[in-house]
Amino acid sequence: MPNGVGAFFYEACDSTNARAAELASAGEQGPLWVIAGEQTAGRGRRGRSWTSKSGNLYASLLFRPSIQPQDMAALPFIVALAVRDTFVGLGAPADLVQCKWPNDILIGERKASGVLIESSAKHGGALDYVIIGIGMNLVHFPDDAAFGATSLLDATGREVAVKEAISLLAEKLCARIDAWKVNDFAAVAREWTEHSWGLGQKRELRTHDETFTATLIGLSDDGALIARLDDGSEKRLYAGDVFPVERVE
Questions:
Q1: Which part of the chain is the BPL/LPL catalytic domain (predicted)?
Q2: pTM of the entire structure?
């Protein structure tokens, strides 16, 4: 672990995010990683279950940044870039590792990692703590995922141990967070855009209440995805999922 960063490892737990939240409520200050060999109740975005068999990386970072909730717009993209750094450092070809809005990382256009960021605010609105949950498919992946999945092993033929992966991830994410300038989202957005999947192309967008196709334009200054509809109008999305247009389920 980087200097000053702690870690707890569990052979199995319900969810590393849930365990990190329990530690925060008990007064743990962090920064601290919670790492599990397996999760019995792993969670993805929007309450989805996260397949959590042994061999992949399941980890959550608890920390207490001195920022306001509205300052967090860049964090999902910073984390995505750190996970991308990690996959490349573990042997994935850099040109095949892409960031998919809002917080997935792809290898060869197939999902290899997801991120779930949760936070709690103090009375008065300031952040109390932030938990960054990260799952990385190192050796296996679900074959029934809504968006086609892969693993580092499947994509590169290289089998990496969890210990090696978390060591590198902790280093990369620590460096990214230390370099984070809260008032300079543009720099983060620019780098994320350089490695993004689907920008400039037509994609199928799914929100909680509609599905439509649009051309992905880029990120707004608050992290929303800007999409251009067929009639030329633009729409900003703050939550949802992106799929290839030709996908049929």
A1: 1-181
A2: 0.92
